[in-house]
Please model this.
Amino acid sequence: MLLAGDIGGTKTILALFAHEKGPRDPLAEETYPSREYGSLEDMVEEFLKEVDREVDQASFGVAGPVVNRRVEVTNLPWVIDEKKLEKELDISSIHLLNDLEAVSNAVPLLEGDDLQPLNPGTPAPEGTLAVIAPGTGLGEGFLTWDGSRYRAHSSEGGHTDFGPTSGLELDLLRYLQERYDRVSYERVCSGIGIPNIYEFLKETGYAEEPAWLTEKLVAVEDPTPVIASVAMEDDRPCQLCVKTMHTFVSILGAEAGNLALKVMATGGVYLSGGIPPRVLSLLEEGRFQDSFQDKGRFSDLLSEIPVHVILNPKVALMGAACYGLTYLGGES
Model:
């Protein structure tokens, strides 16, 4: 019996899996608001009481860098330690994965309904695969072929320095440099980044914020879903929201192309995270692909790389379960 989890800054999904059923078919599953719990231990103890099952192995995908079996969650005030978890939860074997390593483990399992192609391209057999995931933050990962299967690798590429590709983005960088010690891609290409783009456009006078939108934004804690949904409305267009999301999509395309070049992702690039499926119509307009391919002498190479949006919302959970069932379960 394997306990697997997808631990994010906003929500955490916990589930039980059996080896014979595989990583797509959990025996039990619950979703919890992460910030309402003081620790992962508290949440897991509650889950195990609810399902009334004993487990001896666990694997968790966590939003943060895992170093020496320990992780400080990037957008959550938790520190998770494998040894401490094993002792407090009385579970013999626990493994922590970076959240994008977890997502990457699931990529080879994805099927037709799990994916929406943005560029069919021509995948190279056994070519490296790249994953970029704008959600609350910005995650990046990749997979390499070892001769018999794909192996997932974690990365903190979303925290590299933001590199503008236009005059507007240069102004955005200067604007944010006055507010942060350092401006990474996550500051402009994630759920926490979209409001930064919006405020920049509003404060620099790109367009006025409509009164009806002000009312909407005041009423919510997180403005990102409002900005994104308004940008896709046909009956009541808002220039600020549309430009915000167009800028976001262009930056995402450019950084996805950067990642593809860095790891030579000739097998394909996969967009994961909570945002891409919700703004699919914006991604399909062509702005993303134009930015993705705008790499000078390497534009032709990038045009041949397949790009897909992962539609399955449980992909990180599936990947954590896949890792646990494959490696903790005794396979090599």
Notes: The chain has two domains: 2-105+314-328, 112-311. Residues 37 and 43 are 6 Å apart (CA to CA).
